[in-house]
Structure formats: structure tokens, C-alpha cells
Amino acid sequence: MSILVFGSLNIDHVYQVEHLVRPGETLPSTEYRRFQGGKGANQSVALARAGADVFHAGRIGPEGLWLRDAIAAEGVDVTHVGLDSQPTGHAVIQVDPAGENSILLYGGANLTVTSDDAHYVLSHFGEGDWLLLQNEISSLPAILREATERGMTVAFNPAPMTPEVLKYPLESVSLFVVNQTEGAALAEVEDASPASIVDTLRARYPHAAILLTLGGEGSLYADGREHIRTPAQPVEAVDTTAAGDTFTGYFLAGLLAGESVQASLALASRAAALCVTKQGAADSIPRRGEL
Fold first, then answer.
1. What percentage of the chain's residues is helix, strand, coil (to nearest 5)?
2. Active site annotated at which positions (predicted)?
3. Residue stretches of the annotated binding site for K(+)
4. Is 223 a known active-site residue?
5. Domain 3-9+38-86+110-290, what architecture?
6. What percentage of the chain carries pLDDT values higher than 90?
């Protein structure tokens, strides 16, 4: 089976700061670095480094050609990464000494994906293939509908979570991957406890599995047969950027390789733990051999 990641490619501008900038505050940074990023690209890299057969679809501007080359060097098929006249998407990321981050996104070329693009790209895939989506590109409703018509299995990480997500044809989704904030918004619950989020989402989308990531508290997975709590691995965090993308990529790579849900969760937990011990987004994602 192949997996297509139809998602963002971003240039990440990362600033080390004493604390995350407060409203009205001007704060000097102690370090600046540039990395490849975008949730879509990060998850493609994580899947590839975990050993999956990965295709990436998306759009970049002229200054983002190095992003396409970088994920291609990981073994990702970039045939469906198109060039646009709009600037490449980018992110401004603050990271504090504890490794916590704050991220400002500019969509750029990521938001030029059209329904025609969706039709063309997905015409190369079909039943038995997986599709992994995030919420950083345009035309997601069209992509979801087309994928369903072609019999693909859809995993959706609705990040960043926006009100528009609730209007998407989410009956197309077989697996939701959410953190606690995203899960509470998707479930539309005031009680943001893990159990409440998972139970509400399972009731609302009974056809789908729910994977709730909980940072240092691990993860919670539920479907019609299993309910699994997986602890996080204890490490000293340097930068939490791309930890969730690493977890998502490694979890799906495990499933694609025929591993059980429990084994795939354990694999993803180890990979995410290694990720947060390094700075950067895609650059911090570990390779399978490091686990």
C-alpha cells in the first residue's frame, strides 16, 4: 500500500526566546535558524524515515524549490508538488528554554490548491491507498470527497483547527489524529478531558478511529474494538516542534507495515520522544534506526 500526503510545505523561521512573546511586548531573540517544515512535509518525512512508501502533493513558490528537493532526498515521491507564483508558505516559530513553542503561519502557495488539482492528483491513486491530510492547504472538502469516491482510506489531522473544519465532509475520514485542543474543538465540548473528547468524537463519528495525542501524558486511541492508552517516553525536551507530526507519521507507517495498533503506538511514542530532544521541524524527526 502507498500513502499520499496532500499537504503543506513551509519554510520555518525559528527564534529562540527567553519566553513566548506577550501581547504588546518586543523581545530580542537569542538565536535564529531556518528549517524545512509544514505539517504536510513533516509528516511525509516522518513516514519516509519510518520506512513507508510515501507520495507528497502540494504547492510551493519559486523560493521553496529547496523544500521539494529536501523531501525528495528522503525518498518521498514529489511528482505532484507543483510550482506556483505565490510565495512559499512559511512559519514564524518562537521556542522558549523549556522547548515550548508558539507558531504564526502564512499559507502562501499552500492555499492555491484547487479542486482541479485534487482531481488530477487523486486520479493516480485508488482503493487500498491511504491519504493523510492536515488543515494547512486549500480545497480540503474537494480532496476529501474525491478520496472517498476512489475508495482511499483517509487520515485527517485537523491542525490548525478552524471553525471551517466542522463543515468539511468528515464522514470521509477513517482516522482522526488530534491533540487535546484540536480534539475539544472538533468535539465541541467544554470538558476537555481526554475521555470526554474521545467518547464524544466516537459517538459523532462512529465509523472513524480517534487518536488523541497528549504530549507528555502520552496518547489515547479508540475505535470500535480497542481502547488503548500509551505513555510518553521520559526525555528532556529541547524543542517540541514536529513532535505531533513525527508521532503521526510513525504511527501510520507502523499500520502500513502490518503492525498492530498497540505496536504502532509504541513505535510512534519512541519516535516523538527522540524528536523533542533536537531543534527544528523536519530536521528533528528521527530515522528508524535511531529508535
1. 40, 25, 35
2. 245
3. 239, 241, 275, 278, 280, 284
4. no
5. 3-Layer(aba) Sandwich (3.40)
6. 86
